[in-house]
Amino acid sequence: MALNLLMLGPPGAGKGTQAERFARSRGIPKISTGDILRVAVHAGTEVGRLAKAIMDRGELVGDDVMIEIVRERLDRPDTRGGFVLDGFPRTVAQAEALDRIMIGRDPLIVVDIPVPEAELVRRLASRLVCEKCGTTGVPTATACAMCGGHLVQRTDDNASVVLDRLRVYERQSRPLVDYYQERPTFRSIDGAQTPDGVAADLAAAIEAAGAALGGRA
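Above: the chain sequence. Below: its structure as tokens.
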């Protein structure tokens, strides 16, 4: 059975770090709409320019654009053994579209990673990303561990925009938990732990969700 994992949680919950770590351990692709959009922004494409203006305001890119990006990516051969989705869906409309995309595939395992707001603000206000490849760094680092690029604060990580992003998440994305939580493959873990603690709980949650499907994830 293919391991199809969807990770939910607010900005700053550590979804990207955990998604990358888990995908690498299982040899499946991590699919991040944020990464795809950053490539478009860096290349200066029409979609990239539009997305940059929206993200700089702390808003979310529209459903139609994001759905098509994900549909195309999930059609590639490397997803047949499974994948980890990070950053999609962000609205119930996107989740409904994802359910249609997933018809004929193995079920999604959905893991939510909640974190208290005060901790999210602290994390995001101190977060640095590589201006070259988009990898998240740490406040004490001077260069990207992946490519050696310069680490900078994202324009949507300043304190005022962070609070706006969290409000947008609560309004538009929080209903996703309600959408998924009755499914036997839904799990929630504490995102306020250390990264290693979150990773251990994530692995256990996926194992339990796989068992609920009658198999092992």
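The two ends are 8 Å apart (CA to CA).
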